[in-house]
Amino acid sequence: MLLVEDDDRMAQALATALARRGHTVRRVIRAAEALRHAREAEFVLLDLGLPDLDGLDLLRKLRTVCALPLIVVTARSEERDVLQALRAGADDYVVKPFRMAELIARIDTVRRRTGSAPEPGGGERQVRTGDVAIDPAARTVTVDGSPVRLTRREFDVLALLAEQPGDVRSREEILDRIWGDAFLASSRSLDVHVAGIRAKTGRPALVRTIRGYGYQLGALDGP
């Protein structure tokens, strides 16, 4: 577990709680150290208030070099910061002060979700709609043959919709399957990730909104 936290008291409390759960914790203070040790970690807890670089900028840099499960843990509670972090690839966002049990539960949820993701070659079929190809096994998306880079959670949402392309998935089901909590306040986060899928693929109709209920994979015209 890589803990990027410059507050000594918070770092000590987190390290102690995580150690009791069996995690080996490496605590770093600076963004440069986080980038140096990221590839050695299995999970990242990231504070946004760092002495050498804004945490959101570090998050963007981390996402260019690795796809580690990552939760932002910060005192910043503005919606703008939450949305920017989610768009940059954070798997979850926890605002200080928080209950340690809640953070541990969120870590466990993200670990279960990312740990159960299919590995390349897992045999799941590729799904196509129009010129968009979704490969759940390889965790790739292409549009007109060109790869599109989605965040981990954006891909998870799209892959869930592609499991049964004709089915409509309720918001509660998506939140339960992807976030691990159907009643999470991250309902807004789901909308952010859907918007990210539409924007990055350049296919707004790829995810169809079923008003008052949920989402469905859009049936796009052929290439």
From TrEMBL:
GO terms for molecular function: phosphorelay response regulator activity; transcription cis-regulatory region binding. One of its GO terms (biological process) is regulation of DNA-templated transcription. Keywords: DNA-binding, Phosphoprotein, Transcription, Transcription regulation, Two-component regulatory system. Residues 1-111 form the Response regulatory domain. Residues 124-219 bind DNA. The keyword Cytoplasm does not apply. The modification 4-aspartylphosphate is found at D47. InterPro entries: CheY-like_superfamily, OmpR/PhoB-type_DNA-bd, Sig_transdc_resp-reg_receiver, WalR-like, WH-like_DNA-bd_sf. It holds the Pfam family Trans_reg_C. The keyword Transcription regulation applies. Residues 124-219 form the OmpR/PhoB-type domain. PANTHER family: REGULATOR OF RPOS, TWO-COMPONENT RESPONSE REGULATOR ORR33. This is DNA-binding response regulator. The lineage of its organism: Bacteria, Bacillati, Actinomycetota, Actinomycetes, Kitasatosporales.
